[in-house]
Design goal:
Helix content is about 20%, strand content about 30%. The protein is of the alpha+beta class and about 230 residues long. A hairpin with a 5-residue loop joins β8 (about 145-150) and β9. This is BURP domain-containing protein. It comes from Hibiscus sabdariffa (roselle). InterPro entries: BURP, BURP_dom.
């Protein structure tokens, strides 16, 4: 644990969701004004999104091959092109329209949905500290969910995925050691039997795939879509 990147400290187990329990959590702080924007669909589709085209893309965006931006683009493209695990569907959305198409594919075209995000009630520059569960977590009923995560790229890319196995969604009121207050979105994946045993969550939590549910908090620039029941 001493050598683990603190950015991995977002994972926990269901038994941790008790009032008064404390745990170390990493919440990145990103200014939305400086984040890449989602492109309109026609503009996004005019730019190739493929690992095979990476050299051309680097020239298009004026990044050198050994730059941090190039490595981030390569990692994002690789993750988007990797195979889904059994029981999961995933999609990298490069426009709002394509994200909504994916949501409709999961929930059905006539299903309304709501967006759940983590909210920082107080403002500070502290990224990593111990947080205490202040109130009984509120479970959000959700027969299915779509989770979307921002990925590093010159324009906004949302890695969205949905699993057919059971997931539970919570809103959790947290208080930091420095007085920070966060209303955090958390998802618990109840079946991890198909996950790669090298997934960082198992290193953090210290157990094997399929033995216990894995829960994690969402940073403020990620979100969960749930159908309106």
């Amino acid at each position: 644990m001493d050598h683990m990147d603190v950015s991995a400290m977002v994972f926990f187990t269901l038994k941790d969701l008790k009032v008064g329990n404390s745990m170390p959590i990493y919440f990145p702080k990103k200014e939305s004004s400086s984040s890449p924007r989602l492109l309109p669909r026609d503009e996004a589709e005019s730019i190739t999104f493929s690992s095979e085209e990476l050299p051309n893309l680097l020239r298009f965006f004026s990044f050198s091959e050994d730059s941090p931006q190039a490595k981030a683009m390569e990692a994002t493209l690789g993750e988007c092109e990797s195979e889904s695990i059994k029981g999961e569907i995933k999609f990298c959305a490069t426009s709002l329209e394509s994200m909504l198409d994916f949501e409709s594919n999961v929930f059905g075209s006539s299903t309304d949905f709501k967006i759940l995000t983590t909210e920082h009630v107080t403002k500070s520059n502290t990224l990593f500290q111990n947080y205490t569960v202040l109130e009984k977590p509120v479970e959000i009923p959700a027969p299915s969910i779509v989770s979307c995560h921002t990925k590093p790229y010159p324009y906004a890319v949302l890695y969205c995925h949905s699993q057919v196995t059971e997931n539970r969604v919570f809103k959790v009121s947290l208080g930091g050691e420095n007085g920070d207050r966060v209303t955090a979105v958390a998802v618990c994946h109840m079946d991890t039997s198909q996950w790669n045993r090298n997934h960082v969550s198992f290193r953090v939590l210290g157990f094997e795939p399929g033995t216990l549910p894995v829960c994690h908090f969402f940073p403020a620039d990620n979100f969960v879509l749930v159908p309106v029941l």
